[in-house]
Amino acid sequence: MRIAYVASTAVLVATTFLLTAPFVSAQPIDGEQQDYVDRFTFGELGLGRSTTVDSTGQATRLTVPSPAGSVPSMLDAVMTVPAWLDRGWVDVESDGRPITRITLDNTAPTTAVSIPLAAAPTVDGAIALDLIPSLIPDDRYCPDPASDAVRLIDATVAYQGQPAVPETIADFLPVVLRTLTLFVPSDADRETVTAATIVATSVIHHYGAQPVRVAVRPDSELAGAAPDGPFERSVVLARSSDAGVELIYPVDQAPPRMYLTGTGSDLTDQARLVTSDLSDIAVSTAASAGPSSATAQLPPESITLDDLGIGTVTGSGGATATASITIDQTRLGRSASNLSVHLIGSYTPGAGSVRATVNGSPLAVWEADDTGRLDRWIDIPNSSLSRVETLDISVDHPSTTGGGGCSAAADTSVTVDGSTLVRSSDSTTPAPLGLRSMPQALMPQFEIAMADESYAGVVRAVTMATGLQRLSSLPLLPEVVSMEQALDGSGPALVIAPALELPETVTLPLSSIDETTFRVADPDSAGGATELTVDTDEPFATVQVTSVQDNAVLVGSWNSAPDRFDAMLSWLDDDPARWFALDGDIVFAAQNTEPISLSSAALSGADDTAAAPENTTDRTTVLVVGVGLAVLAAAGVGALVLALRARRSTTAPSRHSDST
After folding, report:
1. What is the structure's pLDDT at 31?
2. Which residues contact 528 (CB under 8 A, 6 or more apart)?
């Protein structure tokens, strides 16, 4: 799965943010609360679930955020010990200063680690730690760092001291944030909802991999709301003839709430100030942002790995070495097609071969030579494109004959230089069009339309927009408009509405034509469809990807009451990793079941036309029964009482006829 890649890429995003974050100028609070202690996991800090230590002896950098007034005091973790280790240790340094030495116990698979951080200097709101390993392998084993690496897992950081209370707008956002609360009017207009989505998505982007929770509350609850904690912030949106941004302190020694006021575009101007570069010079408790507009960045046709933030990629090993290049389409700023990579770099020369694969599928193989030079174009088929592509460049050298043991395998390395060029073109209709095409198919800017523009609709719009932003390396640019404008064919859109209120121009992959019958559209056949009838009428909800006039449209809908849809959004929002895991073009949720991802191509049988006869039943049957069982489970029916009616107006004979 690509979730692991996204986590590692997100670490880079979070690290970049932390290294560029300014000092918070506010002062810590005096008094008894100086001994305040809090603890964060690496995941909460945006540092990923684990960190792999470079076994070659090169330093592995860890960047730990250090909020003003509250400094990291101890890093506790578990370090894995490879089976091939005879003895070894890991030195921990900060800014060239030794912090501690971790001795690895080769009699156990893990070693408990406690790294004191009090002596580590804080620079621009962060502490930089370098982990430098010295590993001596057991002569009875051949080390394989790729599959048996030294990793830091289950890491937490304890913080000592009371976090400072912001004194200016520039200091409002801390370097670590757990929760952002948005207070919005119960009768919010479209500009106010736009402002809410701008604040939410820009804050999510600002914190990178940190899983900041976004809560939306009606402004009627503001008077009775408890003050924010040290790592919480609240933003209040209010319509007013006077546009501006102001910090108001609910009680002493608690973070202030940020009030954004204005009407129409004036309010959205204030919303953009929260995370913009202009906020750095807002060194007061009140300010007013002038007219501004969200500028969509036109993606370049060609861009280097350096400019993508990937840089030079190196792999090393025994007889085989692999350099993995992760290409994130959201960093390209669009849904791409005709993607090709001009490899520039080098590898260990000698007899053997060089292989290029994408997401595990072979692309090209050519003979290695004595020059050890990489200079070759690699084309990635459109059918292999997804939100994230992993391009692996591997060099294979045959083992030498003779002495055996580890010496029989040559030391091999491959390096892809940061000057390597990635070239692509715009894909007007992403192929394949599905959840893996989100959110890049909504870039550089998209519109949001809601059939229900009440407070509940605001919550849905903000939740979906923040979920999409978690998938993107670049900021999204949403704007709330009418249903007619969103579907006029001028650009991509997010639509939230009951299924019965969707315009006729919207054709969903999965629809309900009456109370008990599902219809799955065949994406490769005009008018073709598969139908599934169940014996009960139960509420369900979906998130689906379709297109209107060749523009990508993400649709959130429900068949009866919206409760099922709201529950599905809550489930997705509870764990950001769930957004990354979505696949196919349908997310289906019924009562008492977790949402599942489905593919309309598989459900309708379109995938089977290219499959071998012996494999024609597996995927489609599983997915069709998945929908049926989800509905049956919702009704509490204990027996299999569904009838699959494969009625297609233009389809081939049954896929099951050739199965054995």
Report:
1. 40
2. 521, 522, 604, 648, 649, 650, 651
